[in-house]
Specification:
alpha+beta; Alpha-Beta Plaits; four-stranded antiparallel sheet; 7 helices; globular; binds adenosine-5'-diphosphate
Length: 144
């Protein structure tokens, strides 16, 4: 077990559905601790960097437009094995494949946008978490 911090983004569908508090409560009830929280608009440049692994895929322009529909809320969350555990709490990328009781299963879109409008981003490993925390938070915005 490792004490880790992960980077979560509440995506525009979470903001539009006004479920940020409900989802945040799930993270806190799972025992994780908030180290940083802020609302921000994502520029094309930042999205190109954050989603570099999908930037060449045909659906990327849709993802970019979606992620700019509203500001997002960035969350730095700490706890034992938080990186894997938050991914488990979220469920798979495609909300129609996510089981009831997972965040994407309960709140993700179930129509044609099911693969895109999936409530939250969360880092998928320690290296990604370190890079993403640096990308979204300045040193003095993260608390011990
Ligand atoms: P995850 O966010 O679950 O780690 P990926 O890193 O593969 O998934 O993809 C990043 C984001 O791009 C997804 O969360 C989703 O919003 C969007 N996305 C992924 N695959 C598709 C797809 N086939 N069609 C539309 N959007 C997609």
């Amino acid at each position: 077990m490792a004490r880790e911090t992960t980077l979560i983004l509440f995506k525009p569908d979470a903001i539009q559905k006004q479920i940020v508090g409900t989802v945040l409560e799930r993270f806190e009830k799972a025992g994780f601790r908030i180290r940083g929280l802020k609302m921000m608009s994502l520029t094309d440049e930042l999205l190109n960097e954050h989603y570099a692994h999908i930037a060449k895929l045909p659906f990327f322009p849709d993802v970019q437009a979606f992620m700019q529909e509203t500001p997002v809320i960035a969350l730095a969350l700490e706890g034992e094995d938080v990186i894997t555990k938050v991914r488990d709490l979220l469920g798979p990328t495609d909300s129609t494949q996510a089981e009831a009781g997972t965040i994407r299963g309960d709140f993700g879109f179930k129509d044609g946008d099911a693969k895109m409008r999936n409530v939250c981003h969360a880092s998928d490993g320690p290296e990604a978490a370190a890079a993403e925390l640096k990308r979204f938070f300045a040193d003095d915005e993260l608390f011990a």
